[in-house]
Every structure is written in C-alpha cells, then in structure tokens.
Design a protein that fits this description.
Elements lengths: L19 H7 E2 L4 E3 L6 H12 L4 E5 L8 E7 L2 E7 L5 E5 L14 E3 L2 E3 L6 E3 L4 E3 L3 H5 L15 E5 L2 E5 L7 H5 L2 H9 L6 E12 L4 H9 L4 H4 L1 H7 L19 E7 L2 E6 L13 H18 L1 H7 L4 E5 L3 E4 L4 E7 L5 E10 L4 H15 L4 H15 L10 E3 L8 E3 L2 E7 L5 H15 L12 H6 L4
Helix pairs in contact: 2-13, 6-13, 9-10
The structure holds FE2/S2 (inorganic) cluster and fe (ii) ion.
FE2/S2 (inorganic) cluster binds next to loops.
Amino acid sequence: MLLPEKTLEAHDVFAGKLTMDDLETLIDFKTGRQKRIIYSDPDIYQLEMEKIFGRCWLFLAHDCQIGNPGDFIRTFMGEDEVLVVRQKDYSVKAFLNTCTHRGNRLCKADHGNKKSFVCNYHGWGFGSDGKLNGVPLEAEAYYNKLDKSKYGLIEVAQLACYKGLIFATFDKSAPSLEDYLGEMKWYLDIWLDAMPEGTELIGTAMKVELPINWKLPVENVSGDGYHLGWAHAGAMTVSSSSKLTDMEVGNTSVDNSAAVSVAGLNGHAVLAALDGKSGYAFYPDPEIAENYLGKNRENVIDRLGEYRGKNMWGSQINLTVFPNLQMLPGLNWFRVYHPKGPGKLEMWTWAMVDKEMPEGLKSMILNNVSRTFGPAGLFDNDDGDNLQAITEQSRGWRTKQMDIYTNMAIGGEHSRKELPGVVSNGLICEQNQRYIYRRWQEMMRANNWSGIPTYNSLEEARATEAG
Ligand code: FES
Ligand SMILES: [Fe+2]
C-alpha cells in the first residue's frame, strides 16, 4: 500500500526560496518516500552543487591514466572542470581548468602530456605545478608590475589516493579520504586489492550525454535488483551464458540468502551475489574467466581472507561510492556521472581489469563492457529509457508535487558479523536507495561536516538517525 502524499506547499521551492523545512519534506527515510521535485528543481540542483559536489570526495582519475610526469586528464567535480596532473616527483595535483586572466578554458584536450598549459586567448602560460610562468608582453603591457605568484591556477582543497583511485574535495574541512570511505574500503578491496598488482582501466572512456537527473542512475545501480528481471529481461536472455545458468545473479527471490544489499556505509552502498562466480554470467564464453578465478582463488583468499575470497571475489557486485562513482567487478565496468543541470548528465564508462589478467580475458572484458554497458549497450539502453522518462515525469507542474517510493522490505535490515554496514537479504529490497537518499538529505541540510553523521553499521546508523 502506498503511503499518503504530503503535498509540498507551492510557495516554497517553486518560488526559489528553498528552506530547511523543505529539505525535511523532500525525503522521508523512515517510509522510503521522495518528492519528485528533487529530479527537476533548479534551486535544489544548485544546492546539490554546493553541499554535495562542493564538499564530498569525488573521483578524479585512476593512477594508470596519468602514469608519467606531465600526464594529465581533464575531468569534472560537479560542474567545475578540473585538470589532474602528474608532477615531476610523481605526486598528483588537480586545478580548476580555467585561466586566471579572463576565465577562458585553459586546456581543451581530454588527456595528454604537457610541460605547460598555455591559454588560447592571450597566451598566459602555466606550469604543470599550476604556477603562472609566462605572460606575453609582460614588460610592455604590465610594466613588469604583475605579481605572477598571485595568478596561479586554483588547486583543489585536498587530494588523496585509495589503491589506485585518485579523489579530491573542494572542502578543506572534509574528513580524510580514508574516513570518508569508512568501512566501504572493505568492499572496494574485493576488486582493488584482490591481486598484488591492482587494477587498470583499459580502452578509452565511453562518454554519453543523457537527459537524466544524476541521482537516478546512481540509485538504480546502487540497489535496484528489482528491475533486472523485468526491464532487462530481453538483454538478460541474450547475454547470459547458457553454461552458467545455475548462477545466482538474476535470482529474484527476496529471501535469496546468496545475495545481499548493504548500505549504511556513510552513503556508500553494495549489492552483492555471494556465490564467487556470477560476475561472469553475462559473457558469451566465461571459460577464460572461470580459469582465471580458479587459478587465483587461493591467492585471493590469502589476501582478503576466507569470506571475501570465496564468497565475494568473482561474484556480481555493484559498488557505489557516494555521490557519483560506481563499479561492477565481474561485468568489470567503472563509471562516473557528471551532473550537467537538473535534467542532464554525462556518463563516463571504462572497462577496468586486474593488471595480472591474461590479454585474452582483458579483450573479452573490453568487448563485453561495450556490448552490455557501452553507449549502445543492451543494458544501458533499457535503463536510459526508463530513467529519462522519470526525469521528464518530475517536471509537470502537478506531477512534480507527487511522491515516489523506495519502501520495499522496510524492517528487513540487520547486522551480519561477516559483513560491515546495514544488511538486507537478496538483491531486491530498496534498502540501498533509502540510505543513499538519507545521505543526500543529511548533506543537503548540514552547514558543515560536523553536522554530517558518520555511520558504518546498523547500530551507528540508528544512533545517528534524524528525529
Ligand atoms: S583569458 Fe587566458 S590569457 Fe587571457
Ligand atoms: Fe539496469
């Protein structure tokens, strides 16, 4: 039974006056309710840029993308364009990709190697360390009075790396990356630390612009096992390997004990089969992957312990790092969402592999990522159609005042000694979406990090629940 709607008073958000009371009204964690307006309202979107993308640790680049001094990649933190540059001493710096003279975009290339970045407009030149080194006609036009030390590129507030993944935040008061990830590190390690040499991205970034609010694909991949058997019924039929029909992924039983949803990890989430092999269920011929898993299983158990090595490594797992990074070991894709306004996003997808994988397996994975989750991928087209429609259905004057729900299986949350976080049985329960929206609301209403709770277990999540 659906909960009765609470109609948002039209004078608040619609008049551009977003109040704290409105923020309380937009999400109800206890009942799993959201206001549709969160997918379309420009004021809410602007507040997200400030309170979420302006403060969270955001993924910038994989170590392998900028291996050598001078290597750079151009990316985004929210709508801010950022250059991530490997320094001479192999440290990494990240700067706003904007010239400090008249504000031109400094670098137009997506990636490359440069000793300096020279602006197209008037020729100011910046070093890879961000310092302003060269100004044309410095003596004639500025009478040598320009203090170049004041016009360097603007650097992010904090930058840190976790097992090959480089993150940054614009907020100098944000907790350390280690603390921000919290117990989510335990789950990330199932991919990032399973093999001694770690991971690498292969192929190139597949970039797609979609008319979709950024939160919708995040909540979808974080926890929506419900749509698999319906929205992807066709794709699952044609892409599942007949050899692996016994695999648990796609098993839609709510009580399926061989799969879990895990949330309550500071906003991060995990959806996981626990069979140790289903990650490769959607490959035309999974034999090479099965051999790889078999050959390395004992080593992985040594590195990650019995539970993760046996039950989780090789399983289909969806990993979400709040707010906009997701990766699926098994299907082996790695993805970041860049918001471009309330109704638009850019989605960047790579194939990510263990460095030690044989070349044949790597190329099979690259092909499979394109086939399933690339721009013309079978699964992504199913999702894109639905998520675009939800975004559009949040715009109508009357429709956007409506509620929508992630209220499935409320009350099924529990703790498990072997799994950090808040656990629910099976892939179908909407627990993870509830916790993602809870984190969204916590960040939107907090003025600083001391007002944002930290929780990595059911007990901590309950203790920090807003009244
Ligand atoms: S705007 Fe870049 S040099 Fe003038
Ligand atoms: Fe999907």
